[in-house]
Amino acid sequence: MLKKRVVLLVACLVLGMGQASASDWKTSVDLRERYQSFDNFDFNSSVDNNSWELDTRLYIKVERDFENGFSVFLQPQAISTTYHGTVAGTQKLSQADLLQSYLHYKSGDFSVRVGRQQLVYGDQRLLGHLGWKDVARTFDGIKAGYQSGDVSVDAFVVSPADIVAMTPSPTSPRGDALVTWDKRVLTGLYGTYKVDKKTGVDAYFIHWKHNDGIGRNLNTYGTRGFGVWGAIDATAEVVFQSGTWLTGVSQSASAYALKAGYAIDAWKTRFGIEYDYSPGDDKTDAGTHKNFVFPFHTNHAHYGEMDRFSWANMKDIRLSVKTSPAQNLTLHGNMHFLSLDKAQGDWLNVVGAGVLYAGNAAYTETDAGTEIDLKLVYKVAAIQGLTLVANYSVFNPGAAVLERTGSQDSAVFGYLIANYKF
To answer: What gap in Å lies between CA 240 and CA 219, rounded to an integer?
Structure first.
């Protein structure tokens, strides 16, 4: 089915090119080089399992508006990764695929988009693009939209695109997909009402059906309020989840987020505070699964650069500052005070389904530790389109790490990025 869609879109491109000059097409290129290192991620400095990775990512965008309601968008990508770890050694991974490829039609207040596409909503806690690694942050399917005045509503039926994850593995030189996406379908509605340009409320419903050996049949529904009032901005989001599993276990979970910021004119500075919480599953009730499950997670941007947590069985108090002391230079500082909600429950990493430390009825400690993230973003004035990014992160583990590993040494993560768009 995907190949048929791609052929259709290519045919549209060819027909369009026959009727228009090259100036009717918009093209852009995004080239990114990224080096990152992971030191002591097991919180035990006596074991050498440090690693590093060098990634090259190329995006090419080609789009055209046919001025009759139809437009077409293609975004092929190519990825090359060199990874070195103690267990796997040095591996070189590469692939090319389509990140997006869709046909779009708009008539008045209504629109339809068919093909491979990204879904980006709200703060991207559940649905977003997260262009970090070459994993399936994109979907195959159809989306219909309505937008009139202050109201917009999207309805979609999609399946996560089957794109292989660039994940190094000691047993597979090329790496395996993070998840097999076959037989997964997301059906959803996402609506927004705006009181003004920067203030409004979202409401959404996502049904996730996954038959491939797991048998999830889950409903996720929530609301998000957002607003800006002078120097103050705030966002609050509440999500609930119900449904069943193939094993007959019922799903009952929830997640909450509250953040606020205050801006001052000096250096365009914003001070922020955020609280993220999701009740955990202490596993005392075998008939109910209480950890929040992600239809399609984008946690990396929210709960620490080091990806030690997702929005499940967690509490996170985040203090942040963003400031621009010079033209084209922006500094970001974040400090996360992280803990588990249920000591006996699983400690889940950024994937949400990936268990960092399995739960145990004997565990009593919930203090996970603190993470400090410092980031510098510089737009090079002499080379238009070039942005340089440097990040340094430290995770200082708490009593919960010591209880689970017997060690309590700090972990360090860093990366350098050069991103050129033209």
So the answer is: 8
Kindly report, residue by residue over 191-247, the tens digit of the pLDDT.
999 999 999 999 999 998 887 656 788 999 999 999 999 999 999 999 999 999 888
Give the separation between CA 267 and CA 240, rounded to whole angstroms.
39
Taking the domain 2-421, which CATH number applies? 2.40.160.100
The contacts of residue 275 (CB under 8 Å, 6+ apart) are: 256, 257, 258, 259, 315, 316, 317, 318
Length of the chain: 422
Helix (H) or strand (E) holding 14, with range, is helix 2-19
Report how far residue 310's alpha carbon sits from residue 353's, in angstroms, rounded to the nearest whole number: 9
Cα angle value 192/196/198 (rounded, 5°):
75
Q: In angstroms, rounded to a whole number, what is the distance separating the alpha carbons of residues 330 and 245?
A: 46
Q: Which two tokens stand for residue 78?
A: 């190519």
- Domain ranges in the chain? 2-421
C-alpha distances in Å from residue 29, one per residue of 70, 174, 236, 306: 23, 26, 36, 28
Smallest CA-to-CA distance from 338 within 414, 278, 381 is with: 278
Q: What is the pLDDT of residues 240-291, one digit of tens each?
A: 999 998 888 999 999 999 999 999 999 999 999 999 999 999 989 989 999 9
Nearest residue to 276 via CA among 290, 292, 289: 292
Q: CA-to-CA distance for 215 and 199, rounded, in angstroms?
A: 39
Q: How far apart are CA 137 and CA 57, in angstroms?
A: 15
